[in-house]
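Service request form, structural biology core

Requester: graduate student, group of Dr. S.
Request type: structure prediction, single chain
Budget code: on file
Notes: please return the result as structure tokens.

Sequence provided:
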Amino acid sequence: MTLKVSQRGLIPPFIVMDVMRAANEREAQGEDVLHMEVGQPGTGAPAGVVDAVRAAVGTDKLGYTDAFGLPQLRSAIAAHYQFQYNIDVKPSRIVVTTGSSAGFVLSFLAAFDPGDRVALASPGYPAYRNILSALGVEVVEILTGPDSNFQPTPELLDAEILRTGPVQGLIVASPSNPTGTMVPPEKLKSLIDYCSARHIRFISDEIYHGITYGTVAQTAAAFSRDAVVINSFSKYFSMTGWRLGWMIVPEDLMRSIECLAQNLFISPPTLSQLAGVAAFECRDELDANVRRYAENRKLLLGELPKAGFDRLASADGAFYVYADVGKLTNDSVAFCARMLAETGIAATPGTDFDPSRGHQYVRFSFSGDPEVMAEAMQRLIAWQGT
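Core staff response, request fulfilled:
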């Protein structure tokens, strides 16, 4: 007898996790690995967060919270928008989530039905595509490149709609993963206005806000109360394993998201929420992390061309360099496997981020220690010289 298996799980794997497993297996065999594959900070939670958690453990019962999160955390997030962007966001519109991943699931479920069509930039974060597909939503890939700084534009979206039909949603990440590129404020407003005029739900992934180089990222909440804004404590706040994020939710989605959150997650982890309140008091330490990323970025942008990686996305924010390796290989998966075997450097093939063109791209993460980044560049230069 064959039991039914849902088609929802038949989505592509998250390839970076496969790369990380291969790197870990190499380490387990006693070989060294220079990790440039994983999209997480090389540092742990800031000291103030650790102190707050120590104080909470043993004194707080750590029971369930409201499905939308602790009131003090929602208020702290609202204060962050006043401090960082000089905009007023009501705490009542803020929903605390179990990482940004839960925010994507909640927003996609609340905003779209099976058969709807949602546009996103390619290359882009693969989980958008895979979650939407698992929910029965059609993914509309907007092929972007250097001409648009690897970001969607009203013109590109308009051309795709004319070619294939209307869409019900658009997801924009600025800074983006894997390219690190950003949408300037005036162009972000143009995209939002385009979507508003056509009743397209705008979802803004802002999890790399705070990690930018030379310009400050603007939030979609500055331009629209109808946009869904998703952020996280994982990147700037250096708290990936704490699984804590948040959303700014339009009024028309509030009750749907509340019911979904209650049933799917009950509430975000309470200890992590208490840690999140403390995280906003740790900006000095967190900004020091960003200065280290900036030095790593400068090193990679200067040294990668010496190793033959001379076609690079602009890396305006986040901690990635997205490299066009088309003149070196037509198989980025095999190329990254050979790089790991021959140099000990773990990097992520672009096929994770761009199904149609990713075989010619590689993503390098520069979130690690400066010494590791410097050693990796030396090895890459020597490797490409052989």
